[in-house]
């Protein structure tokens, strides 16, 4: 258990450092919205509120700030104009990609320090662990939740 907790702390540190790199542009909840949209595509406010586990009015305020920063776009839902669709703007996609690239680089640096004969075993172990934890996305959402929940 100690080894698992130690590894979790290392992963959270990597995730936290990637969030710190963009904290001058977005808050942690705003970054969660951007990563969610990057992973899931166009969403409505209800889905974003559910993802953030907040009241819809809080999700609206968060998204309004992202709209003003030109990080997301808003359009009418063609199926029901009472609903709006939210999606990543190019600048939002770029921000998410920079955070995930930072995480990939940091993780790669750690993997490079693992002896070649152990690397495959470590990666298989992490893959099995992620599957058991229900982490179905390789896009960073799981690590983002660890660092901002």
From TrEMBL:
Domain HTH marR-type: 1-131
InterPro entries with a match to the protein in the record: HTH_MarR-typ, MarR/SlyA-like, WH-like_DNA-bd_sf, WH_DNA-bd_sf
Protein name, entry field: MarR family transcriptional regulator
Source organism of the structure: Frondihabitans peucedani
